[in-house]
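I have been asked to look over a protein record a colleague put together. Alongside the sequence sits a line of tokens, each denoting a local backbone shape. Please read both lines and tell me whether the tokens look consistent with the sequence. I do not need a full report, just your reasoning and any doubts. I have pasted the whole thing underneath without changing anything.
>
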Amino acid sequence: MKRFLMVMLCLFPAALFAQQDAIYSQYLFNQLLINPAYAGSTETLNMNFLSRNQWTGITGAPTTQSALVDGAFGKAKKIGLGISFLNDKAGLENQTGVFMNYAYRLITGPKSRLSMGLGVGLTQYMLNGNDAVVDDISDPNFLRKEIYFTPDARAGVYYTSPGFFAGFSVTNLLTHVLNGSANSKTVILPYTHFFLTAGGIFGKTEQLKFKPSVMLRDDPSGMGNLDFNALFTIKEQLTLGASYRMGVNVWNKVDQGNARAQQNALIAMVSVFFAKQINLGYAYDYSLSQLNALSSGTHEISLGFILGRRSGWGTIKSPKPVQ
């Protein structure tokens, strides 16, 4: 099995950094995807479902599904609670996890909050040799599954005000702490990932809001990416946006070559509200790498429900567009 994996790594440079955290394009609509401190930020009870098919048309390309529930509770809604479920499959590898998220929200001004969050949960990592295409189907190395369970944690901070937001989060805090040299196993466990987000909101009326933002996603061993985003929200009902994603090497790691270039993409997205409580979102990623010749792009769909009254202040809140 390990010999087969080494061949795969030589053929596909991106596989060198397998078991990376899942990539999303609509994270601005629900940052609980990347930051536990975001729990309760909308001060309503929210449900959100997302499905992503990356590099459509390429066999073994990543597919991701997630389900999120979060809300704010307690006096002055200082407590944010959330549950997040993730399933991510890439090639022979599959990652499934569930996390309980807690955020304590400090009131820093009439309409500003500083949240500190922690998420704890359990993740299953699986390598399915049964799905491998090999010359010798009798090879016992490819007739079995390897499954590995590990507890994990993530932490973050998130600040929000009517015209600005910023967040920083760290994921996969325990995978290597609890499992030592986890990559000596055939199942490859992810390293710690860092997410840094910041953005603003411009527009004095509800007719049109402009929301530029940036997001840096990286880890000390694998490829990272930097997103530049621009969203326009019209009458609180329709959000149109575009992003440019580029591969970056923040930590002076060994040059990742094609693996980093494969992150480069242009992204278009739209989010629409129906009946004030239902939100439908879609994003399309157009790869700027050689993958474009092999793939018809990346498709990401989200469906959100707001169970309660929409708050009248704040920044990029989800699943709804910004107010």
